[in-house]
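Review form for a predicted model. The reviewer records the input and the model, then writes brief findings.
Reviewer: anonymous (R2)
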Amino acid sequence: MNRVLSLFVLACLVLGLSAPAFAERRVALIIGNGAYKTGPLKNPANDARDMAAALKGVGFEVILRENAGLRAMNEAIDQFWASLKKGGVGLFFFAGHGLQVAGENYLVPVDARVALEKDVQYECVNAGKVLGRMEDAGNGLNIVILDACRNNPFARSFRSDTRGLAKMDAPTGSLVAFATAPGDVAADGAGKNGLYTSHLLRVLRTPGLKIEDVLKQVRIGVAGESAQMGKRQTPWESSSLMGDFYFVGGGQASLSAPQASVSKAADLGAEKARLAGEVERLRREQEEMEQLKAEKQRLEDDRQKLERAKQQGQVSVARPAPQLANVPENPVSGEPSSTSLAGTSWLAQDVVGETVYEFLPTGVLKYSYNGSTFTNGTWRQSGSAVYMEMNNRYAERDAVIRGDSMSGTGHNTVGKTWTWSARRQ
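Model under review:
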């Protein structure tokens, strides 16, 4: 009953029966690294502090780290991930050195010791890790802003001469913003803040602007100012957002209802698929149980017929076992022939359906069908001929072995006869 109620509530959310506007939770991780021993930067710490203050002003809970080493960065990312799992909008901002190696983007901690290009993956933080953690949190909308395309401070020790950061594709429901286009470098800025961050801080608090419009105005401002400096810096974004986000929404819902509906619809679809799979599994189990019950009932009917026939004196003498020349009582006594069944397993198409026969070296025949296993059988072999008794001699089978296959006939004490075959497993 509780499950049905939960599904009903979820369906109501998908259909938009909940309130159309809501104030979503907002969480940001801000890291500014500038105190590098190699290639120090003067603005990232200022960028981080100013971004933290701006985001707090528009409703974000902020985790701030300045001049963080590798361990501090990883711990902050873990804290950010744990907070995002509670839901809401996630924003990650990094100012500092960033570089690419083999098409992967890395954010450089202040304590990174990079002597070779291969050291980067161990001394730096892969930007994909941050994106992966945000996506794994399942919170619906994530923003990554990287003002980290400065010149590579370790370039002289690298074999490749790639510049800036590589292109990154934003997962569904997320946006990745770069201070400049892939493969280009960004200016640290002549003032208090980096060129990109200074324009972002200026536009971010503008009421009623979608995030795409905020970043467009930032791009126009950065491109114009860098051109006046005789340089070219064009900010770039990759977006897979499904709805609208406003830093300052003027009282409107920052995360649009369509985005929320898509997320909830996906959850409901997954739940429906899981329930359908559960129903199918139960149906198959029920069919198997019915088959087993039918087989047990058939055996019981045959047993009762036999008992009645015994009481009435009408039981015919059971068919004697076939006379197999030189059949040993114990199939493993002496040296077994190349066709010995001892220790082998065979899959048969038999009167009761698919059956697995195991010929134990002790002469016991173990057989399984319809989910049940029995050990009340015996077997004997002579050359390529085999004789089997099952269910305390209620049924008998004989067969001829030909390589990895065997075939023959079966009989039971109530006069039923059939053919069967099997293949070695």
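Findings: The chain has a mean pLDDT of 80.
Further findings: The domain at 12-255 is CATH 3.40.50.1460 (Rossmann fold).
Recommendation: see findings above.
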